[in-house]
Amino acid sequence: MKRPIASTLAVLAALTTSACGEQAPPAAETAQESGWVMPPEIAEVASSGRELIVRGQASPLGRVVVSGAGDLAYAVGADAEGRFELRVPRPPQDTLFLVEARVGQEGFPAPYRLLIGADPSAPVALLAIGAPTLRLDAGSGLDAVDTDGRASFVSGRAVAGAEVVIEGSVQRTVTADERGRWRLAGSGDGSTPITIDGTAYAPAPGGAATPDTLQRSGAGWSIAWSSPGGGRQSTWFPDRPATIR
Question: How far is Cα 194 from Cα 154, in angstroms, rounded to an integer?
Fold first, then answer.
């Protein structure tokens, strides 16, 4: 099912509620006992040499599977409180991983894909059709610009609770949440130059010629991708500041 950016602000609110864990089953119940399976929620991805350490939350004692093209597949069990930590080698090519909870042979996919670039300087992020990208590698200021060609999301990081001034076609101010994340929905193809708290960016989200592959685009990276349901989206990531690489 296609989900254009312009019609998904309500869905974004629902995803945020889910990320807070408000509907998680009691820790004492397993997925099989409760009859409800929680799709995995990735909280962070840390780099350790050629490996990436993926941490997050799933159903207590559930199984988490992260799989890519071909035979790329990695699995781990969550503990009694639903926490999991999975080590994933950096893939030989840019990969959009499917993340799912697995009960027997049945999979319960998360509503996003985990993007890991083959280049260590490339971004690591969670991509979802019709929603702002959640960038997980080190960064500050602007994280990503997403667009479906008609509407766009701009998202980034700041000090929790800080007001962020965004200057583009119009000037707006947003407030970073308790995790330091902020986002802004707008119109257009996401290519309008913008300034975030005095730092200028020139997004180029439509520049990726090969689907599902990160490519250099201006002073950053871009990827164009689609969901199994046919939704399409392009994302542009600015390069990480040299001071935090």
Answer: 10
**Structure tokens that stand for 162 in this block:** 């800080």
At 158 the pLDDT is: 94
| Rounded Cα distance, 214 and 125, in Å | 12
What's the rounded Cα separation, in Å, for the pair 210 and 218? 16
Provide the 3-class DSSP secondary structure of residue 80: coil
Q: Which amino acid is at 126?
A: L
| DSSP label at residue 31 | H
Q: Are 245 and 138 in contact (CB under 8 A)?
A: yes
What are the domain boundaries of the chain? 5-230
For residue 149, how far is the Cα from the chain centroid? 19
| 106: its two tokens | 């049945």
DSSP conformation letters of 2-30 = ---GGG-HHHHHHHHHHHTTTTPPPTTS-
Burial of 123 (0-12, 13-18, 19+ CB in 10 A): buried
Residue 75, CA atoms < 13 Å, CB-side half-sphere: 13
Contact by Cβ (8 Å): 66, 74: yes
Q: CA–CA separation, 58 vs 39, rounded Å?
A: 6
Nearest in space to 61 (alpha carbons), one of 85, 76, 86, 80 = 80
Tell me the average pLDDT across 6-33: 40
Residue pointed to by tokens 């093209």: 69
Q: How many residues does the chain have?
A: 245
Q: What is the pLDDT of residue 35?
A: 59
pLDDT single digits (tens) 107-162: 999 999 999 999 999 999 999 998 999 999 987 799 999 998 888 999 999 999 99
